[in-house]
Amino acid sequence: MHRTDRTRLWTTRPETPSDTAAVHAVNAAAFETRAEADLVDALRQDPEVPDEAMMALVLDDSGPVPRGTIHYPAAFGV
User: What is the CA radius of gyration of the chain?
Assistant: First the structure.
């Protein structure tokens, strides 16, 4: 299959509210338990969290703990 052929098979677009049930169904099928799919749903709903709920940890001595505001790429829609 040529690259141009594969491109026609995969369409991406921004997610809409009507996609929620289908996305959940895919996650439910991918994980062993419904709890895992529910967790993914909870994490997807609203990526904005209060400052006190967001934490970061440096796993080596390469520098200080990151500070500031997280800026997501436009593709994330937030």
Answer: 18
